[in-house]
Amino acid sequence: MKTFTKALVAGCFALATAGTALAQDNPMVGGAAMFADKNIVENAVNSADHTTLVAAVQAAGLAETLQGEGPFTVFAPTNAAFEALPAGTVETLLKPENKDMLVKILTCHVVGAKAMAADVQKMVMDDGGKHVIETLGGCKITAEVKDGMVTLTDETGGMATVTIADVVQSNGVIHVIDKVLLPKG
């Protein structure tokens, strides 16, 4: 019985350590550990910096999609990025009658592939300094590398900077950005 108990304790410790290692490989986001074995939504709900994004994803009915198999790359704007929009914009977008526009904006932040920062930087270099990325929302965002940082320019000319890159998820990757990307018109 002692051998079984020792083996059980060792097994539990190994599982706990593996879970911790999965989180340690990822950067902390919004004060929370991000686990590579959890999906995009499971991790995002724990980030204090992404409560507006999570509320918007839920209001748009996109939570189930972003919990799906993927792979997805999500450029995740922080709460501060949403707060920088004109006054009342977020509240207006969260109204049920504006769901289509909310979906359009949010899907302009999602790419149907897993693209780590090094992949994006290589695409930019291979394309002579700029690479156009088509999102699931049909938006075209232009990636560049400036001072070692990946920047994304949306269709309106707004520019976001990746502030935390390569947050690995079970169904893709999240890159935290400091601005909301907007579609044309």
> Per DSSP, what share of the residues sits in E-state strands of 2 or more residues?
15-25%
Give the uncertain stretches in residue-range form: 1-23
- Give the % helix: 25-40%
Strand order of the largest sheet: 2-1-7-6-5-4-3
| SSE topology string | HHHHEHHHEHEEEEE
How many angstroms does the end-to-end distance come to? 70 Å
- Give the mean pLDDT: 87
Structural class: alpha+beta
Largest sheet: 7 strands, mixed
How many E-type strands? 7
Radius of gyration equals 18 Å
| Contiguous helical run count | 8
What general outline do the C-alpha atoms trace?
Answer: globular
Notes on the structure:
The protein has helices spanning 2-24, 40-44, 51-60, 63-66, 79-83, 89-93, 99-107, 117-126, and strands at residues 72-77, 110-111, 131-134, 140-146, 149-153, 159-169, 172-177. Helices cover 38% and strands 22% of the residues. A hairpin with a 5-residue loop joins strand 5 and strand 6. It is α+β, with helices and mostly antiparallel strands and 185 residues long. A seven-stranded mixed beta sheet has the order 2-1-7-6-5-4-3. The protein has eight helices and seven strands, in the order H-H-H-H-E-H-H-H-E-H-E-E-E-E-E.
